[in-house]
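Let's study my pick:
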Amino acid sequence: MSPLSPSAEVWETVWHYMQGGPGVFTGDLHFCQIEGDVRARLGEIDTSVCPLYLLTGEYDYSASPRDSERC
């Protein structure tokens, strides 16, 4: 989250992550960075049939704008 985010929203986000249990966030990062890397298959997606949206965020470690630009 942005360092400028309101404290209440920051703590709500922290609370959501804490509900996942030990190792869940680490597993999410592993999937996003290794198992879920579909860059080699992007050419197979027919965007006229299945739109493709890249969700990125300036403060999102697992999906930065730079990552989307590389795709």
User: Anything to note?
Assistant: The chain is about 40% helix and 0% strand. Residues 24 and 40 are 26 Å apart (CA to CA).
